[in-house]
Amino acid sequence: MTTTGPRTGDFRDQLVQPVLVLGVTAVGAVQWSAGQTVFPAVALSLFVLAALAGISTLFPWTGLGPRTQIAVISAYMGFGALLLPLAHETQAAGIFPFIAASAAGVKLASRKAAVGIAVGGALLATGASWAVGALVPSAPQWPWWAPLTVALPVYMGISFRDRQDVLLSARRAAEAAERAAESEAREAALLERARIGREVHDVLGHSLSGIALQLDLADALRDSGRDEESVAAVRRARALAVDSIGETRRAVQALREDTLPLPDLLRRLAERNAVDFTIAGEPASPGAEATHAVFRVAQEALTNAAKHAPGATRAMSLSGTADRIILTVHNGPAGDARHGGTAATPGVGLVGMRERAAQLDATLHAGLAPDGGWTVELSLPRHSV
What residue spans in the chain does CATH classification 3.30.565.10 cover? Predict the structure, then answer.
């Protein structure tokens, strides 16, 4: 996950104020001895105070309250505005009030306070320039309009602060979206694991139950002296064990194929099992969960038919009506009654199929067909699609 941190642009933006304050302070100190000032003692005091106030604005203000911040910026602006007409020939020192106006826009959360301090500084600089001109007519002075421009940088500071706020909000929103995406991905992974666990549980439960039944049958046949049939039952148990491995693999594969439409999934299933498959009407493809559940019902019904009616013909169809999607799996009578049960034997997977149907708000009918075979019909309402 991306963490909040300074960017290249942020460093560049944050360097503007320090470079200005420290640069003006250094250049002003160098020029001070060479330049001429009006009322030198007062001018030097104002220069030192303005420099200290400017340097104080370079530190984080998280521990200062709004009133303290306003007081510091006001002092910064006041010292700079009064210094403007006194240090005309030092040039650099006269930049302090402009930097103070910009700092007011950047540092103060209240735009009203920032603009008020900037305008007040401009008026103070104008008044100070008029007073110095009256007291010392021979002293060089700025043009009459120059002190009024002291307030203008406040809008640059406000714009800079707004830009920083927008960037910070966008960054936080992006990080929140990334965290939400990661949370959704984790939830999806957990759901996927739960689904795979349920499928493997169903497949293994069905297969192990069949194996246990065949082994019990083999034991009973051996006790009655029917050794040949007992060996056949053991072989069927082994075949069930082998089938269970394949069933487990197919269950996991089916989970990975959920993105395919239901008709395509059933067509593939029919091809793998060499079963006739027909489509009637226009059965809409349901959502991923419903698609997977219908697929598993079809898979379970075909598996039951193969185990309980070996050699019987099998067929599968999918049809759509105005309000329902219907899956039908039919097998004829068992072709070899000596291997497995009869077509009417309801298989241990029937309970699992009924549970899936209940989850879909669907109905499942399983029972004897008129031809002596077995039919499983799942009827899914379209409102649950």
Answer: 260-385
